[in-house]
Write a structure and sequence with these properties.
alpha+beta, 123 residues, four-stranded antiparallel sheet
């Protein structure tokens, strides 16, 4: 019975991985090229996917389960113009917010440290 559960679990995970892999392929990462006025633009994205599964038994009952997901996030575009190719990134607003937050914390710590040093020298 345990061998059957493991076989079912493995085939379930394989099917899940296959479905997620299909949705996170090259055509998802690089969009359809768009051409206008001699400039071609190819959108580019980052795809992340993960999945997991498991099985268990309790009081003579057995079960298997799992899940997964795909996240696709635009990161920039490839610009082709006059025979030259450039990658142009798209700024990530979350990254900017994180940088501002970390900078604020670092400024606070620096000011506190400077204040303590100044107060020590006065005494």
């Amino acid at each position: 019975m345990e061998e059957v559960a493991k076989k079912d679990q493995n085939s379930f995970i394989e099917r899940l991985a296959q479905r997620l892999g299909i949705s996170a392929n090259a055509s998802t990462i690089y969009g359809e090229p768009v051409e206008r006025d001699g400039v071609t633009v190819i959108p580019a994205a980052k795809a992340m996917y993960g999945f997991g599964g498991g099985s268990g038994s309790k009081a003579g009952e057995e079960g298997i389960g799992g899940g997964g997901g795909v996240a696709i996030k635009p990161v920039g575009y490839i610009e082709i113009k006059d025979g030259n190719t450039k990658f142009r990134s798209i700024p990530d607003p979350e990254r900017v917010i994180k940088i501002i937050g970390v900078s604020g914390v670092m400024a606070f710590i620096l000011l506190r440290t400077v204040n303590k040093l100044v107060n020590k020298r006065k005494h």
